[in-house]
Amino acid sequence: MSTPTRYGILTGRYNWRSTMKQGVLGGYSKALIAPDRETMASMLRKQGYTTAGIGKWHLGWDWNNIEAGADRVDFSKPVVNGPTTRGFDYYYGFCGSLDMPPYVYIENDMPTCLPDRITEDKGKYSWWRKGPTGADFVHEEVLPNLIDRACNYVKEKASSRQPYFLYLPLPAPHTPILPVKEFQGKSGLGDYADFVLMVDAMVGRVLQAVKESGEDDNTIVVFTTDNGCSPAAGIDELIAQGHSPNSIYRGHKADLFDGGHRIPCILRWPGGAKPHRVEQTVCLTDFYATFAALNGYTLQDSEGEDSYNLMPAITSPAEISPIREATVHHSIAGQFTIRRGEWKLLLSPSSGGWSAPKPNDSTALAFLPPVQLYNMKTDPSEQKNVEAQYPEKVAELSSLLVKYVEEGRSTPGSPQKNDGKYPWKQLDDVFSRK
């Protein structure tokens, strides 16, 4: 999901440790990352990097006069607690998703234009919510605009000896699904697939800019997504045409099932990485510790609490022993799953999200065990719940998850505090058995 992934990437910490325990932020939400928390940008800036964020923020900032309500925001004034206060020397983008108002670009804390109209789209795939729209904000042009700016940034930094960190969170292929004319009909599978092709082409432009900068071998590019395919893409329609966007994996975006969390993650580093497929489980939180290690920076106990250094896997020519002890996911409803080796435990009888069985389907859930256990090696599609056959594995993974929650971290180090107050309802049964 958008907000949890962005929080995890930039802090190296699971999002459920923040004050937001479920769901995602909106376009008017206040800043989620605490002012005193180190981010990947601030950490790299300490190591001599210049840092930039271009794209969809979705981690909140404080609009001027937001306390008076969304309809009273003063777009002529700067935002507070935005990206430039969280480690970025430069930022250009917008606050929420491209389907969440307000639709206003922010450059270094200032709106680039005042809203001059209200826009809304009710199309099946192209929809966005009704809201104020900046005079220079055109939904169909947002992705190309961001890519143009990213390419220009790379070209600009090519002449400098100072290393740079560019964080480029794209608004696509999230809704609204808006392939430009060049890509319309190109996939033969519909609007969403056309949009994915457009994203690929846009990323190709960034890679070309890196190549032309003369620093191709010395530049690390990570391309990933924040969750599995969304039902908003028309999954059933794609499957009917012979394309399964989440492959063999059960569920989709927002779920505990692997269709919601198993994502493409490609790292390109011609001068340092040894090309091979990494077969072990890694998490996007791990890039914090990875880039810290690359720069010889030692993490403090209070940063990157869920981040493991992936450099041994990146620089090895073949698969190595697992780096992570275990990996925790949570669904849009805030329910937990933990994966260790081939075993995956879901602390819920449901999907935890939008696929069946849904968390609010009391009729279906009444006939299901309270937890689910799957062997992901023999059952990667999560079809056979074996919790009754392996109670010791359920107990082992439950205890490990409780340890991670109680200690405020999943990596070695001194215990830390989780943010905010929350009863951890999904762990009540586990705690009661301790």
Main sheet record:
5 strands, mixed
> What sequence of helices (H) and strands (E) makes up the elements?
HHEEEEEEHEHEHEHHEEEHEHH
Strands of the largest sheet, in order across it? 4-3-2-1-7
The gyration radius over C-alpha positions equals 22 Å
Q: Given the helix and strand composition, which structural class is it?
A: alpha+beta
Distance between the termini: 31 Å
Write down how many β-strands occur, each being a DSSP E stretch of 2 or more residues.
Answer: 13
Dominant shape: globular
Q: Runs with pLDDT <50, length 5+? A: none
Strand content: 5-15%
* Number of helices, counting only DSSP H or I runs of 4 residues or more: 10
Mean pLDDT: 95
Q: Helix fraction?
A: 10-25%
Short account of what is shown:
This protein is of the alpha+beta class and 434 residues long. The chain is built from ten helices and 13 strands.
Report on this model:
- There is one protein chain.
- The chain is built from 10 helices and 13 strands.
- Helices cover 24% and strands 14% of the residues.
- It has helices at 2-11, 40-46, 142-157, 191-212, 235-240, 286-294, 311-315, 362-365, 391-407, 428-433; strands at residues 50-56, 90-94, 106-107, 110-111, 115-121, 128-134, 164-167, 221-224, 265-268, 327-330, 336-340, 343-346, 372-375.
- 43% of the residues are buried.
- The two termini are 31 Å apart.
- It is globular.
- It has 434 residues and is α+β, with helices and mostly antiparallel strands.
- A 5-stranded mixed β-sheet has the order 4-3-2-1-7, sandwiched between helices. Strands 10-11-12-13 form a 4-stranded antiparallel β-sheet, covered by helices on one side. Strands 5-6 form a two-stranded antiparallel sheet.
- Helix 3 (142-157) packs parallel to helix 4 (191-212).
